[in-house]
Design goal:
The complex is a heterodimer of chains A (209) and B (105). Chain A is built from seven helices and no strands. The radius of gyration of chain A is 23 Å and the shape is globular. With 209 residues, chain A is an all-alpha fold. Chain B is mostly helical and 105 residues long. Chain B has a domain at 26-93. Chain B has three helices and no strands. The N and C termini of chain B lie far apart (57 Å). The chains are: A mainly alpha (209), B mainly alpha (105). The interface between A and B is large, with 98 and 75 residues.
Chain lengths: 209, 105
Amino acid sequence: MNPAIQAILFYIFALGALLSALGVVVLRNPVSSALSLACCLAFVAATFFGAGATFLGIAQLIIYAGAILVLILFIVMMLNVKDEKPAAGNWFYCIVGVVVAAMMAGTISSAALRLPGATKGRCPVHVLAEHANELSPVPQGAQATHPPTTPSEYGGMLPPVSMKEGESDISLLGKTLFTHYNMSIIILSFALLAGALGAVAVGRKLHRD
Amino acid sequence: MTPLSHYLIFSALLFSIGLGGAIMRRNVLVVLMGLELMLTAANVSLVAFSRAQGLEGVPVYDAQVLALFVMAIAAAEVAVGLALIVAMFRARRGVESTSLTSLKD
């Protein structure tokens, strides 16, 4: 696909994801929040497709939007949750939430814009590994002599995904998953089992004497 | 193509919206949705780094495996969390976090 079209699609999907994430927080009805969350997760899955992680995008759609969202909607309807009413003193929590979230966003964004090697369009991990022997944690060559002003100076373009013949995203992911991380996935399956058992144990009816 | 930092800023904004929702809302179900948003934001940055660290156009798949693990743990977390919310609804007749005042009173 044309790289320019791919970039434009990323910005459209990211904007959609952020707007529907705002909908999750702002909407009063929990059913509307859950549907907005489904929309947001679908947009994020679309950005995964754009980044070349096709299997993760599919897994995101199936697990999050398919399984988790249906479970949340089922519980919302089973409990018959009403709209949240504004209560006295709620503005304090609103201010605290907005301030903490804005501080978080500013910190991470400024850190993302100052990554080593950002002006040269390279991965920060590679740049740091090359300069591991030097005293300064940030390599001299990667520091801009002037603060970055244009968008092309903020981080390099990611390389396009190009697979060899006979290789695909899912086969490489499967090779990594079932060779290096074989023991981890077994432990993870026990964590899922423990979660299911815990849900049954917490959710069963209590028999009082 | 999109630079790495734009993916990271997108992830930061998504995380912040989820964090703000978890702090501001009193409905426990919506707080759980905010937690889901934060986990998804972490997945976005993992996928972006997997693209950025790969050489010759082949991503590094360790990050995507980690993102897959995050999804599995999120599924387990939602199962336990929803069971806790149902138990809380039985005990308190509501899902408002302001009704949980046993330690305060």
